[in-house]
Amino acid sequence: MKLEDKLTGSIVEAIRTLYGQEVPAGLIQLQKTKKEFEGHLTLVVFPLLKMSRKKPEQTALEIGEYLTEHQSAVAAFNVIKGFLNLTIASKEWINMLADINCQPQYGFRQATENSPLVMIEYSSPNTNKPLHLGHVRNNLLGASLANIMQANGYKVVKTNIVNDRGIHICKSMLAWLKWGNGETPESSGKKGDHLIGDYYVAFDRHYKMEVAQLMDKGMSKEEAEANSSLIKEAHEMLVKWEAGDAEVRALWEKMNSWVYAGFDETYKRMGVSFDKIYYESNTYIDGKKKVLEGLENGLFFRKEDGSVWADLTSEGLDQKLLLRSDGTSVYMTQDIGTAQQRFNDYPIDQMIYVVGNEQNYHFQVLSILLDKLGFKWGKDLIHFSYGMVELPNGKMKSREGTVVDADDLMDEMVNTAQVTSKGLGKLDGLTDAEAAEIARIVGMGALKYFILKVDARKNMTFNPQESIDFNGNTGPFIQYTYARIRSVLRKAGEAGINVPKDLNLDIQLNDKEESLIQHLAEFPAVVTEAAKDYSPSNIANYTYDLVKEYNQFYHDFSILREENEDLKVFRLALSENVSKIVKLAMSLLGIEVPERM
């Protein structure tokens, strides 16, 4: 039985015995004692005063005396106004550690046949450019959220919608036709997504030159943009694509295949995967059908130019375009079609979209439209809205080629990790292959942790140098602490000292040891809360606090040199379980931890 449940039962008993009153367990408020006070758990007495009919201090005193006499888990207490601070006996903490020790997946729940199915959409790349820093935040948040939901016993389907059609794709295709000279990933030595991204930038460069030339001839900027021959050609290509033109489609398939090969490399390196990938080129057709069906049923209306709209003014919003006058679709159409396909493929109980906060309005509208169209999860869809990620020198623009490419960023992180680790002597005695693997784990861990420790709803600035620091709230600091604990445990094993499963030890613990066990025992609640709040940062910051606390303990107390054998075994067990929880927590963030460093 959990300590809090045990204490709650005893407090209910105390109130029955002392005041002849039955109190619902939900009225018992136990919380972690504030650091400035003595004790481990604090009972808030104020909700109980109606039953005691006494002052807060007197009520707390009487309940405290009852608990120390009748509940062996309570060793002592003190009263501060209406707060009863309880000190928990050492034996109770040892039993708690033994319980944690027996559970390899402590804090995780397994899905059952009846578990709800959650679908999480993330990544959503465009096939006209490689993944960039913004995509990195999206992918890491989505993958971590999937891990957290699985750890809470949900069935999870990880899904991706690839934006593989539209005017932006045609811009890259047209630029390649005009200026590519048949260049391929093989002939250029470039990853396919990088190659296509270069042509997207090239289109923008030529387009701007054309607009400037038209403005020199006396046109306004708006007139010049409207009369651009490049934009007209790109639009013509889009119309041909939607009409199924064989030549345009063949070019599109060839160029997209280059991009997908590039994406796969990046995803693999990032440690991100999907159970099902949908493509806008397939889903937009279902979207158009669904919109036309809604039109027939009076849910939508057609304007004089032939375009189809949803009138959401009664919901406090505006009118939303669903099909253009030429019959081509918009993003909303594609999202409706994707929802239709997903609904056909899976019995979805909850749908979570991981998309930046610039799309808040889009998902507000999508939720209403899906509900109108009869999707049972439409009304309750979750838009996991996250803030933008910037660099110390400002925003990125993919059209101008000023984005931070995901592949380049990962290269930089691993190289920086190698240089930093080598400079600190953390790679001494390792082979080149081992050193390279450590650098990869540390570099990727630094990147992931730095991004995931920030509240997802906030904008953030990513600083590569700061993220590699081996001190402070960083991935490498946590990874190094884990490796340090594994080193201690290896030395103990070499000395023939093994940690028993039962931990039946009669020893007195110090404050730091008790605090560490209490911190470990909080892990299941942190995992639950992270799913409830859709917040990987809860996990990251819990892990940092745990590691920081362990390092203070490691600095202040001997482990292998401790003379009392029982205490030595206990401290090894404590260390082993700290490393276990660190590894579990970091796995929720998609971060590996090295066994040696």
What's the helix and strand layout?
Layout: H1 3-19, E1 29-32, E2 41-44, H2 49-52, H3 56-70, E3 74-80, E4 83-88, H4 90-101, E5 117-121, H5 133-151, E6 155-162, H6 167-179, H7 185-188, H8 192-216, H9 221-226, H10 229-242, H11 246-270, E7 276-279, H12 280-296, E8 301-302, E9 308-311, E10 319-323, H13 331-345, E11 350-356, H14 360-372, E12 382-386, E13 389-390, H15 406-423, H16 432-452, E14 460-461, H17 464-467, H18 475-494, H19 511-521, H20 523-533, H21 536-556, H22 565-588
Parallel strand pairs: 5-6, 5-11, 6-7, 11-12, 13-14
Antiparallel strand pairs: 1-2, 2-4, 3-4, 8-9, 9-10
Question: Please, could you describe this protein's structure?
Answer:
It is a single chain. By secondary structure, the protein is an alpha/beta fold. The protein folds into three domains: 3-88, Arginyl tRNA synthetase N-terminal domain (Gyrase A, domain 2, 2-Layer Sandwich); 122-390, 3-Layer(aba) Sandwich (Rossmann fold), CATH 3.40.50.620; 406-588, Isoleucyl-tRNA Synthetase, Domain 1 (Orthogonal Bundle), CATH 1.10.730.10. 55% of the residues lie in helices and 11% in strands. It is built from 22 helices and 14 strands. The protein has helices at residues 3-19, 49-52, 56-70, 90-101, 133-151, 167-179, 185-188, 192-216, 221-226, 229-242, 246-270, 280-296, 331-345, 360-372, 406-423, 432-452, 464-467, 475-494, 511-521, 523-533, 536-556, 565-588, and strands spanning 29-32, 41-44, 74-80, 83-88, 117-121, 155-162, 276-279, 301-302, 308-311, 319-323, 350-356, 382-386, 389-390, 460-461. Strands 7-6-5-11-12 form a five-stranded parallel beta sheet, sandwiched between helices. Helix 6 crosses helix 10. Mean pLDDT is 93; it is low at 395-401.
